[in-house]
Every structure is written in structure tokens, then in C-alpha cells.
């Protein structure tokens, strides 16, 4: 059974605005990274899966894959410890995986620059029409999961689930389950595919798309207050221990729940 590695939010050419907004909402962002592929990023770390803001720089090489993707939830990324073996397994299961693709970005730790290195295995866009789905192998995890980046003023702790809408939810769920070495189980509002540390939910929808990621916080008090205090964010209470954070400029909705 696969584990969730991270969830990608595409900012296109609006990284400065996105980084300022997430910082104002109480997330701790890693320093800006510059990928060798021509993209930029900030991470919001947890001990497990993390959130990634990705975009392209104003000048220089620009990653076409990012430019071709829409704002908002943009990538569902699973963890692998062997990209070659994952590619072979997916091919044997009837998929047409691409890669591994190797890339890197500089990371400064204690005043010394290192290269964080990665290898990814991706699915063709038509495999999962809702959005980009791929596996990531971290060759230098110690440069990504750093203790100084784990504490968030708003109490962000983890990513619990990721919701996908599909006109054919059962077929889509079974495809996810095969790719992730999991199972697809019917639930009240769709299909559940358990991962090692999170769930993927596939729900009926007129069009395929990534609908929301569910984030867990120690408490919703801080994130709710911060969102209500901004004109570029919205907060809708979904009960005493859940709420919906909307960021219209990035066509983004994030479900938030309290661990209390």
C-alpha cells in the first residue's frame, strides 16, 4: 500500500502572492526552492505528507508541465523508495508510466548549500484526468524533513485525505487502487482508497477534478481567525471541529479539521 508523499498547489506565476497568503494564514514555509527543471516552490512540512506551493520563476527556464496545469490543487504525489521498481510495477499492472525523471534543488542547512535530489515516475495525463498523479523518490530526505520547518503557528499537523471528483467514480477509484496497491471500498458519498497514512476519496462529479485536501490542525481557532480577518480568504464552519478554507485567487478549497 502506497503512502502519501505530498500535495501540490499550483501558483503559476503568482508565487509571491501565494507565499504571502499562506504565511499570513499561519503556515511555516520553507525558503524558496529553485528546481533544476525550471520551477520554484515552498513547502509546508509535517512529519508525514506535506503541502507544496509550486510555480515558475519570472525569468529563465520555466517548467512547461507547471505552465500547462491550472491554478489550485495540482498534484497528488505518492512516496516510493525505488522509482525504478515502481515504474516496473506500474507497467506490469497495465499503466504507461514515464520516468524516472531526476531533478534537484539547492537547500541551505546551517550555512552550507546542499542539493536535495528526487526521482519521479509519472502517469500520462489521460490516465487520471482529474489532475497530475505521480510517485516521488526522495534521495535526500534529510534535506526536506527538517525539524525547524515542522512547527506552524496555526497548528497544522498533517494531511488526512484527498478528494477527487469523477463522472465515473467506481472506475476511477479502482484505477487509483491498482496504481496505489490498495483497495477501493464504497462509502456513503463515493469510494475510499486507503493509503498507508491517508485516504483518497473519489466522489461523483460532472467533471473530473481534484476537489479538496483535508488538513488536520491541533485546533481550528487560529486558522479560522486568520482566514476571517482577510479579504482574500474565506472560512465556512462545517461543525465544531471542521471548516472549509477558500482561497478564490488560487481556485482553492481546503477542508480543515481539528484533532481535538
In short:
It is built from five helices and 16 strands. The mean pLDDT is 94.
The proportion of strand residues reads 35-45%
Approximate shape? globular
* Main beta-sheet annotation: 8 strands, mixed
Structural class: alpha+beta
Task: Summarize this structure as a short list of keywords or feature phrases.
single chain; 260 residues; alpha+beta; eight-stranded mixed sheet; 16 strands; globular
What do you see in this structure?
By secondary structure, the chain is of the alpha+beta class. The model has no long low-confidence stretch (mean pLDDT 94). The chain has five helices and 16 strands. 39% of the residues are buried. The protein has helices spanning 15-24, 64-67, 83-92, 169-179, 221-228; strands spanning 3-12, 33-34, 40-44, 50-55, 72-79, 98-109, 112-122, 132-138, 156-166, 185-187, 190-194, 199-204, 209-217, 234-239, 242-247, 252-258.
Give the helices and strands, then pairings.
Blueprint (H helix, E strand, L loop, with lengths): L2 E10 L2 H10 L8 E2 L5 E5 L5 E6 L8 H4 L4 E8 L3 H10 L5 E12 L2 E11 L9 E7 L17 E11 L2 H11 L5 E3 L2 E5 L4 E6 L4 E9 L3 H8 L5 E6 L2 E6 L4 E7 L2
Parallel strand pairs: 1-4, 5-8, 9-12, 13-16
Antiparallel strand pairs: 1-5, 2-3, 3-4, 6-7, 7-8, 9-13, 10-11, 11-12, 14-15, 15-16
Amino acid at each position: 500500500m502506497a503512502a502519501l508523499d505530498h500535495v501540490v498547489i499550483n501558483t503559476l506565476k503568482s508565487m509571491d502572492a501565494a507565499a504571502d497568503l499562506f504565511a499570513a494564514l499561519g503556515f511555516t514555509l520553507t525558503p524558496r526552492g529553485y528546481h533544476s527543471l525550471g520551477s520554484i516552490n515552498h513547502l509546508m512540512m509535517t512529519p508525514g505528507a506535506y503541502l507544496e506551493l509550486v510555480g515558475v520563476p519570472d525569468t529563465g527556464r520555466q517548467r512547461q508541465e507547471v505552465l500547462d496545469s491550472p491554478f489550485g490543487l495540482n498534484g497528488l504525489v505518492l512516496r516510493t523508495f525505488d522509482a525504478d521498481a515502481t515504474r516496473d510495477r506500474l507497467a506490469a499492472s497495465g499503466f504507461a508510466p514515464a520516468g524516472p525523471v531526476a531533478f534537484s534543488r539547492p537547500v541551505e542547512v546551517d550555512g552550507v548549500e546542499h542539493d536535495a535530489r528526487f526521482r519521479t515516475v509519472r502517469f500520462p495525463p489521460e490516465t487520471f484526468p482529474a489532475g497530475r498523479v505521480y510517485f516521488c523518490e526522495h534521495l535526500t530526505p534529510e534535506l526536506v524533513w527538517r525539524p525547524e520547518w515542522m512547527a506552524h503557528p496555526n497548528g497544522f499537523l498533517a494531511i488526512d485525505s484527498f478528494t477527487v471528483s469523477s463522472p465515473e467514480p467506481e472506475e476511477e477509484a479502482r484505477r487509483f487502487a491498482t496504481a496505489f496497491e490498495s483497495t477501493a471500498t464504497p462509502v456513503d458519498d463515493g469510494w475510499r482508497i486507503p493509503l498507508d497514512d491517508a485516504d483518497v476519496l473519489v466522489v461523483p462529479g460532472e467533471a473530473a477534478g481534484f476537489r479538496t485536501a483535508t488538513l488536520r490542525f491541533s485546533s481550528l481557532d487560529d486558522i479560522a481567525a486568520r482566514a476571517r480577518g482577510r479579504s482574500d480568504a474565506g472560512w465556512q464552519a462545517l461543525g465544531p471541529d471542521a471548516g472549509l478554507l477558500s482561497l478564490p485567487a488560487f481556485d482553492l478549497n481546503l477542508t480543515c479539521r481539528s484533532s481535538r
